[in-house]
From TrEMBL:
Gene3D superfamilies: Acid Proteases (2.40.70.10). GO terms for molecular function: aspartic-type endopeptidase activity. This is Peptidase A1 domain-containing protein. Pfam families: Asp. It comes from Gryllus longicercus. Keywords: Disulfide bond, Membrane, Transmembrane, Transmembrane helix. GO terms for cellular component: lysosome. The active site is at 95, 285. It comes from the Eukaryota. Residues 77-396 form the Peptidase A1 domain.
Length: 399
């Protein structure tokens, strides 16, 4: 999750198999889940506190110290990873805007809904646990504080086990997480944004020889009728998920996966609307399906889609007009990456009623340069490769 953004999730179901040989690809199937926003609507949850949070839109800093939780309201995917021996499974969000990994602790109070409703890590049940004890804390602004302590244990994902992974056991979790299907977050950001200097799990996979290449990639399946959400590949990319070859762009700051965008264009047929026309920064965020843009940009773009109303902080659009909505053209280094309307419009079913949502969410990043945060609405059209070794991001047309 953008350590300074709003929220959404990447759900993944991982089947834990036997250990594999070293230095191969680790393929993690992603499975679709109902977003927190959708679940809240289905149960008629009181949204007064959430509405206050949505309006407040806390400004993120440039470190991991402040994380806005809003984006996790829009998570569609989660995955299973195991901590300890024998393994304790957790549903995790795989997030390129976090450096740290955390799960609820058995020491978290049962009186706390975010703890009561989620799986909790029990260090006493693990033979490979090693205490660390360092205090862990991230301030979410108006929504509360994520607080706990660091621990070290064995970690298992898909076919692979690595030793001595340090992660956070959370004993105080903001209420925003109460309705989330995911238990915790696995950070795939750079080590420079990791709180307390903790080594990110992906770095540990490299150091222990579990994968040969410092590369991971995401394939998202936008077929809303399928529970299969896609794949996360650790150690490289899978050619079966894309056509042609990758086009690469240099990461401008080793913290977030941030690249430069020339502009974004929308051809309505009558006129071409341009945004980010002087260039802007783009942060790639695998934990959300939205596209977060400056406030004035969000209003301008949403007006193009005949926005009808607000739905739990998102902008509704007419479902019957999706085929008529124009494609979005994202321009990087004068190369056009076009996203079709059936990909970028999100469909949500609540108790048999379908809502269609614009991908654009108003959010101003605390930066001197205009910054967008692009999630699954773009990456569902383009298979995305994150290359830590060569400090770059690659896009290829997804199959």
């Amino acid at each position: 999750m953008l350590q300074n953004s709003k929220m959404k999730f990447l759900p993944l179901y991982v089947t834990i198999l036997v250990p594999v040989t070293l230095c191969q690809l680790i393929s993690i199937p992603l499975h679709r889940m109902k977003s927190t926003r959708q679940l809240m609507a289905e149960v008629g949850t009181d949204l007064s506190d959430l509405e206050y949070f949505l309006k407040s839109k806390p400004k993120p800093h440039r470190t991991n110290d402040s994380v806005a939780l809003f984006k996790y309201m829009d998570s569609e995917f989660y995955g299973i990873a195991q901590f300890g021996h024998p393994g304790q499974p957790f549903k995790m969000v795989f997030d390129t805007t976090w450096g740290n990994t955390w799960v609820p602790s058995s020491k978290c109070s049962w009186l706390s809904p975010p703890c009561f409703l989620h799986k909790k890590y029990n260090s006493k049940a693990s033979s490979t646990y090693y205490p660390n004890g360092t205090t862990f804390k991230i301030d979410f602004g108006s929504t509360g504080i994520l607080k706990g302590f660091l621990s070290t244990d064995e970690f298992n994902i898909a076919h692979t086990t690595v030793k001595n992974i340090t992660f956070a056991e959370a004993v105080n979790i903001p209420m925003t997480f109460a309705m989330s299907k995911a238990d915790g977050v696995l950070g795939l950001g750079f080590s420079s944004i990791s709180v307390d200097g903790v080594t990110p799990i992906f770095y540990s996979l490299l150091q222990q020889g579990a994968i040969a290449q410092p590369v991971f990639s995401f394939y998202f399946n936008r077929d809303h009728t399928s529970e299969r959400g896609g794949n996360l590949i650790l150690g490289g990319s899978e050619a079966k998920h894309y056509n042609g070859s990758f086009t690469y762009f240099t990461v401008t700051e080793r913290g977030y996966w941030k690249i430069k965008m020339d502009r974004m264009e929308v051809d309505t047929g009558k006129k071409t609307v341009g945004e980010c026309v002087s260039g802007c920064d783009v942060i790639l965020d695998t934990s959300t399906i939205t596209i977060r843009v400056p406030n004035k940009t969000a209003k301008k773009l949403n007006d193009l889609f005949d926005a009808t109303s607000e739905w739990l902080g998102r902008t509704r659009v007419p479902c019957n007009l999706i085929p008529k909505f124009p494609p979005l053209s994202f321009v990087f280094a004068e190369k056009y990456f076009i996203v079709e309307s059936h990909v970028y419009i999100q469909k949500v079913n609540v108790l048999g009623v379908t809502f269609c949502l614009s991908p654009f969410v108003a959010w101003d990043f605390n930066s001197t340069r205009e910054t967008w945060v692009i999630g699954g609405a773009f990456m569902s059209q383009y298979y995305t490769e994150f290359d830590l070794g060569k400090n770059r991001v690659g896009f290829a047309l997804a199959r």
